[in-house]
């Protein structure tokens, strides 16, 4: 059994990246990006060619947000409780500085997106939420937080490390951590806004925003949100006056409008990038919303 201490592999300088080969095969590795002194993003890949049986030890003052991307992993906490991370799940883990066993069975493999945050960065009231909802005696908790869609995932892993890109990536990681802490606040009963429909639709809406070009089914949204389609639509109507797919259509239309307004548009490309079947579909949706065609509106914006 190998002892792995991930913090020893993290680059020293913000904006620095490294790829660490794990014990075993060359295609079993972790790509690591240090965003700032207390925030790290990692993309782990475990080969299905061998069985991985390791012990992981992280710093005591570290909070882990892990999203399963493929395969299956078993984590065993210091009390001996086993937690199966699979099926696109999101988990929040408090390290406590104690060893945790990690098992990935042969022929299964696994890939995860991991965000590590130094707990001392959190405001005292958020640290108090962790003490209640994620105590050292129960350091693992599954989240209903939606796993980032393919488009959302590719953005923080795009390899860019220029200052603007790093600022963007910091915001994306902190947003995911913020959503996770909101969920913990709701569980611990400390968040008085937890029952507010506007709060409840934020995470599903963020997921929809990152997947506008994808074909999305209600079953996927139900699974990610952990709520039935009836509850989701009731909640969305209370907060926005629209159903879930009504909100998705509005997001796509607003994004298409921004592209038409601020670029020299190719309507076919815009339609594809914003989830419309073709340029004609985009034009019809545009006419229903604005009472005019995409071409006429574009001409108006260009001369005004």
UniProtKB/TrEMBL annotation:
Entry protein name: Helix-turn-helix protein
Do the record's keywords include Transport?
no
Q: Which organism is it from?
A: Aquamicrobium defluvii
- Top-level taxon in the UniProt lineage: Bacteria
Instruction: Name all HTH araC/xylS-type domain ranges.
Output: 202-300
Task: Name the UniProt key words of this record, in alphabetical order.
Answer: Transcription, Transcription regulation
Q: What is the lineage of its organism?
A: Bacteria, Pseudomonadati, Pseudomonadota, Alphaproteobacteria, Hyphomicrobiales
Q: Hey, what's the signal peptide range on this chain?
A: none
A GO MF annotation of the entry reads: DNA-binding transcription factor activity
Could you tell me which SMART domains the record lists for this protein?
A: HTH_ARAC
State one Pfam family annotation. Answer: HTH_18
């Amino acid at each position: 059994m190998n002892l792995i201490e991930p913090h020893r592999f993290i680059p020293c300088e913000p904006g620095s990246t490294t790829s660490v080969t794990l014990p075993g095969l060359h295609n079993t590795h972790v790509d690591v990006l240090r965003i700032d002194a207390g925030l790290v993003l990692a993309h782990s890949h475990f080969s299905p060619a061998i069985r991985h049986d390791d012990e992981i030890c992280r710093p005591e003052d570290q909070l882990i947000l892990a999203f399963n991307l493929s395969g299956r992993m078993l984590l065993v906490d210091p009390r001996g409780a086993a937690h199966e991370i699979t099926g696109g799940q999101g988990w929040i883990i408090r390290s406590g500085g104690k060893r945790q066993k990690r098992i990935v069975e042969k022929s299964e493999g696994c890939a995860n997106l991991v965000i590590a945050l130094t707990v001392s960065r959190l405001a005292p009231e958020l640290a108090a939420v962790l003490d209640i909802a994620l105590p050292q005696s129960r350091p693992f908790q599954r989240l209903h937080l939606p796993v980032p869609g393919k488009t959302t995932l590719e953005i923080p892993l795009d390899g860019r490390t220029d200052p603007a890109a790093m600022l963007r990536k910091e915001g994306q990681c902190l947003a995911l951590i913020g959503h996770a802490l909101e969920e913990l606040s709701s569980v611990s009963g400390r968040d008085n806004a937890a029952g507010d429909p506007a709060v409840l639709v934020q995470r599903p809406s963020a997921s929809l925003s990152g997947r506008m070009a994808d074909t999305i089914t209600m079953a996927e949204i139900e699974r990610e949100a952990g709520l039935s389609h009836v509850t989701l639509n009731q909640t969305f109507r209370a907060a926005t006056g629209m159903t879930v797919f009504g909100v998705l259509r509005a997001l796509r239309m607003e994004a298409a409008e921004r592209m038409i307004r601020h670029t020299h548009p190719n309507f076919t490309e815009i339609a594809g990038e914003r989830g419309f079947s073709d340029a004609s579909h985009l034009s019809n949706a545009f006419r229903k919303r604005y009472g005019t065609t995409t071409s006429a509106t574009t001409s108006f914006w260009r001369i005004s």
